[in-house]
Amino acid sequence: xxxxxxxxxxxxxxxxxxxxxxxxxxxxxxxxxxxxxxxxxxxxxxxxxxxxxxxxxxxxxxxxxxxxxxxxxxxxxxxxxxxxxxxxxxxxxxxxxxxxxxxxxxxxxxxxxxxxxxxxxxxxxxxxxxxxxxxxxxxxxxxxxxxxxxxxxxxxxxxxxxxxxxxxxxxxxxxxxxxxxxxxxxxxxxxxxxxxxxxxxxxxxxxxxxxxxxxxxxxxxxxxxxxxxxxxxxxxxxxxxxxxxxxxxxxxxxxxxxxxxxxxxxxxxxxxxxxxxxxxxxxxxxxxxxxxxxxxxxxxxxxxxxxxxxxxxxxxxxxxxxxxxxxxxxxxxxxxxxxxxxxxxxxxxxxxxxxxxxxxxxxxxxxxxxxxxxxxx
Length: 377
Ligand SMILES: NC(=O)c1ccc[n+]([C@@H]2O[C@H](COP(=O)([O-])OP(=O)(O)OC[C@H]3O[C@@H](n4cnc5c(N)ncnc54)[C@H](OP(=O)(O)O)[C@@H]3O)[C@@H](O)[C@H]2O)c1
Known about the structure:
It is a single chain. The chain is 28% helix and 28% strand. The protein is of the alpha/beta class. It has two domains: 10-166 and 339-375, Medium-chain alcohol dehydrogenases, catalytic domain (Quinone Oxidoreductase, Chain A, domain 1); 170-316, NAD(P)-binding Rossmann-like Domain (Rossmann fold, 3-Layer(aba) Sandwich), CATH 3.40.50. It is globular and about 70 Å long. The mean pLDDT is 95. It binds NADP nicotinamide-adenine-dinucleotide phosphate. The site of NADP nicotinamide-adenine-dinucleotide phosphate (NAP) has 26 residues, from helix 6. Residues 36-148 form the Alcohol dehydrogenase-like N-terminal domain. GO terms for molecular function: oxidoreductase activity. Residues 198-333 form the Alcohol dehydrogenase-like C-terminal domain.
């Protein structure tokens, strides 16, 4: 591991020494900034529901131990490296954990969550980018830190730091919908829309000016989405699991004879063998776009000829890019994209570093859109 400069001062961090052991709260040397990075005081980190499984290796994401895990966070710049030209100590920032190799941006890791699993990515995690945000302080590449207008967000817009932790949940579907160029006035089918990212996708797609067809099995959650977003640009479809029936339901809901413009698929691993993707693709118009963003670990079942005859585009998308983060922050700061209770997230559970086990257990129980769990180091 390369040696980084460390100062004599210390901070508290949760350290994972082995995947079969719990996180330990330790007092460790505080990181010190160097060229190309900044040290951030972590104010709040969003805990993703599956984080307990990652730490325990039930979800065997590659991680190099010992390390400090973490998720996307909101922080305050503590100090910056000598080449920073925009960021200054004291600024409120969004800390993005998608770290890309500077000499090959195709190589990426999720800082504190997933080490890529191939040698080039592992080199990133093994070295400088090992200790993430479940700590009082964390090092970030300068390009992963985004200035937030604190006065506006916490003032007239009425948000809390916890509300801002919802940014990464909305960013994932925004990355996919931007990738396929969703435009105002277009019709997008989001399915399943009843999960955490599905609920966020409905929120962001409406803010992008689209009409949204939210599909899912859970009628209660579909009703909840309708009660959150009181607009005739949101329609819901209770899916049946039958390809032909679901295609018909989606197509009818679009209200357009040719079908939807975009289909966003967020199928989780549990949908093995499901026909949802086929129904979504079949509901698209000619030259329609399908973006695949779920964690389905199986193979895709495509209506082959239909894709060819209708010139359908199928696009995978992992996370998002820097311009998506910048655009989304503008959407929030302009009031276009609501967060927190304005977006239907009415319950936030907050935990300190010493309560990490309860925090992970609480996050694991999250389902759908409406609650979130935040760690406040
Ligand atoms: N591309 C990326 O960069 C990226 C980033 C983050 C997450 N993801 C992926 O996005 C996916 C969604 O994540 P999430 O956190 O939103 O999941 P989640 O909150 O657990 O929601 C899962 C959704 O899938 C539905 N579902 C489960 N089994 C189903 C089935 N057999 N048929 C139809 N619907 C079914 C659930 O609906 P019910 O209520 O009906 O069960 C629920 O709406 C995950 O697989 C995750 O890996 C991708």
